[in-house]
Design goal:
This protein is an alpha/beta fold and 344 residues long. The chain has ten helices and 14 strands. The longest helix has 17 residues. It is globular. The model has no long low-confidence stretch (mean pLDDT 91).
């Protein structure tokens, strides 16, 4: 049994973390830490949780205790830097859901997020926690950088191909769509219902902060081809939908590509390989990543859907916690483990 601290527990991802921790069989207790919400009752902040979990007081992050075994940090970019070094120095496990420790080089972080990195040494000692990719070894790591929501969808879609066919990949184009919750709870004009209802728009074209994170991880598998990544906002609250076009130097059979994906994800509890392109509603409120792959001559089209707040944030974070302690990765996330892994 462990004790958990949730720093930034009053945002969208923080709420999900609270729900997962409250139902986790090996989380003995947890405390919620916040800034502006300190001193409030959890029920006052999240009335929808009444009757689902026990009420508790929200603690001030200024009084952060080192009594917990593991800490989730769900804060805006730049703020995790204030807490991670001291937690690591005190021997604690940390899973950071923000972007402060995902990149390997501090200069790249500064270019992407416009903050100076105050603990660049930790960038070299963290693990990038793409939980569904089978090769990750969690031993001897205290700091897990939880991947971003877009990178989670892109990397789970592309890594099997890159790892097996990198020399044949000519170009990759990723067209991604996200619900507005990906921007957090801060009120802005462009995210108002009157602005987004019935609307779709591209944003941060050729300049999204997640693109360096994606390319960093792809490069580790030998990717050096032309790459484009274009993000859009959807008039929905939750979800990410991704269409990836991969152009090859030579034609390939669909059986070979399907065999690659089946082999890579054969033991995954949260990857569902689909016979048809997935729909967003299939994955919302779940920790699943649904992937469909189609092949025509020299072109591979991959369609992918995830919940940005769960698979792209809190669900994957809990999955990473389970892996740190050697538990079944579905604990606290699924009510029961489903054994049927057939493509459907």
């Amino acid at each position: 049994m462990i004790s958990v601290g949730i720093i930034g527990g009053t945002g969208y991802t923080g709420k999900k973390l609270i729900q997962y921790c409250s139902s986790h069989p090996f989380v003995d207790d947890y405390k919620i830490y916040s800034g502006k919400s300190a001193g409030e009752n959890l029920y006052d902040y999240f009335p929808g949780l009444v009757g689902l979990i026990n009420n508790t007081k929200i603690n001030s992050v200024n009084d952060l205790s080192y009594e917990h075994d593991l800490y989730f940090i769900a804060l805006p970019h730049g703020e995790s830097l204030n807490y991670v070094p001291s937690l690591i120095a005190n021997g604690k496990y940390v899973i950071d859901l923000g972007g402060d420790y995902r990149l390997d080089v501090d200069k790249l972080y500064e270019q992407s997020y416009k903050y100076s990195h105050t603990s660049p040494d930790l960038l070299k000692t963290k693990i990038y926690g793409l939980a569904d990719y089978p090769e990750i070894n969690y031993e001897d790591f205290k700091l897990v950088a939880n991947p971003g929501c877009y990178p989670t969808a892109v990397l789970l879609s592309l890594l099997p191909l890159v790892e097996n066919l990198s020399e044949k990949i000519l170009t990759v184009s990723c067209i991604a769509y996200s619900g507005t919750s990906g921007a957090g709870k801060k009120a802005t004009t462009e995210l108002m219902l009157s602005e987004m209802d019935g609307n779709v728009k591209a944003y941060k074209v050729n300049g999204h902060q997640h693109e360096p994170e994606i390319l960093q991880q792809l490069a580790k598998k030998g990717f050096n081809s032309s790459f484009s990544f274009t993000t859009h906002l959807l008039p929905v609250a939750t979800g990410i939908y991704l269409t990836t076009s991969v152009h090859l130097t030579e034609a390939i059979h669909s059986e070979e590509v399907n065999e690659i994906y089946n082999d890579v994800y054969k033991n995954s509890s949260f990857i569902r390989l689909r016979n048809t392109p997935p729909e967003l509603k299939w994955v919302v409120d779940t920790n699943f990543c649904d992937i469909n792959v189609t092949v025509k001559d020299k072109v591979i089209i991959i369609t992918t859907a995830i919940d940005n707040l769960i698979k792209g944030a809190s669900g994957q974070a809990v999955q990473n916690m389970n892996k740190i302690f050697g538990w079944d990765e579905t604990l606290g996330i699924l009510n029961k483990e489903i054994k049927d892994a057939a493509v459907y």
